[in-house]
């Protein structure tokens, strides 16, 4: 069996603990807040590193991020967690890529890096699209296993347990393959200070979309962004009759 | 301090810096964490016995592990509540 060449795309998103606020012009959300790596992508990095720690023939783990210059910080975190190198594709914030664009880019990178396993987070916690992995598998013509909660690799056969409604499903497929991670796949390690320092010495390639012969215009136009209406408070009823009266009033009885 | 053991001193500084770095993600904020961390280390500065110092360094390592576990749990829980509605 040839070695595993794993590609792990990561996204820089607003930190999970920060409550997003709509900006005053209602064109988007306030992005001047703390950012960090998409938690589902942490799971995919961790899984790649654990495959290596399980003594599987992992040849390389490449982290990739497309975004503004600050996406490099996220790549450093990925490398501190155990990725061997990073690729940063410079994309300005106002022309941020859509899932199909990301999938097209990942296809090019996966071909260029000769990857045979792509592990993605199942979705990003900012736009919650959950499409990239599936579209990438379609574009590459590879097998896909989404929402993985367990990954086992033997020679070039991959067995993935995935979480579905009402239970688990076990899939078996040959490499090359696309896997997307679910929350219960593993427990991502903390990128400690010494490891972050060491990660600064790891190679980071800087690319643009032009290097991959790609032109990915934005197809969706954001018209308006608003906050959901605030929840209306309930009322307290005096007694059973009051409750029945209220329910009748609402047409529930 | 003439009796300072340079090896131990370096170890203490290293764990202090590592903890300080973790404090950036602390839910109550960095300042909250830093003042408390500083106080915890300063309260032990009278120690001179190397064995005693080693014991406290071990304790700092333990606290580091606990904070890591807490961060993980907090993240896992908030994501679970967000995506698994039950």
Describe the structure.
The complex is a heterodimer of chains A (253) and B (86). Chain A has 253 residues and is an alpha/beta fold. In chain A, the strands form two sheets. Chain A has a nine-stranded mixed sheet, sandwiched between helices. A two-stranded antiparallel sheet of chain A has the order 2-3. The termini of chain A are far apart. Chain B has 86 residues and is mainly alpha-helical. Chain B has one domain. Chain B is built from three helices and no strands. The radius of gyration of chain B is 16 Å and the shape is elongated. Chain B starts with 5 loop residues before the first helix and ends with a helix. The interface between A and B is medium-sized, with 13 and 16 residues. Chain B: It comes from Lojkania enalia.
Short synopsis of the structure:
The complex is a heterodimer of chains A (253) and B (86). With 253 residues, chain A is of the alpha/beta class.
The total domain count of chain B is 1
Spatial ordering of strands, largest sheet of chain A: 9-8-7-10-6-1-4-5-11
The termini of chain A sit apart by 67 Å
Runs of chain A in which pLDDT lies below 50 for 5 or more consecutive residues are: none
CATH level-two architecture of chain A: 3-Layer(aba) Sandwich
Number of strands of chain A: 11
Total helices of chain A: the number is 6
DSSP helix fraction of chain B:
over 70%
Q: Whole-number average pLDDT of chain A? A: 90
Approximately how much beta-strand content do the residues of chain A carry? 25-35%
Q: Specify the CATH homologous superfamily of chain A.
A: HUPs
Q: Rg of chain A to the nearest angstrom?
A: 22 Å
Structural class of chain A: alpha/beta
Helix amount of chain A:
25-40%
Number of helices of chain B: 3
Strand-residue proportion of chain B: under 5%
CATH topology of chain A: Rossmann fold
Count interface residues per chain for the largest interface. A-B, 13 and 16 residues
Largest sheet: number of strands, sense, barrel closure of chain B: none
InterPro entries (chain B): Complex1_LYR_ETFRF1_LYRM5, ETFRF1
Pfam families (chain B): Complex1_LYR_2
Organism (chain B): Lojkania enalia
GO cellular component, one term (chain B): mitochondrion
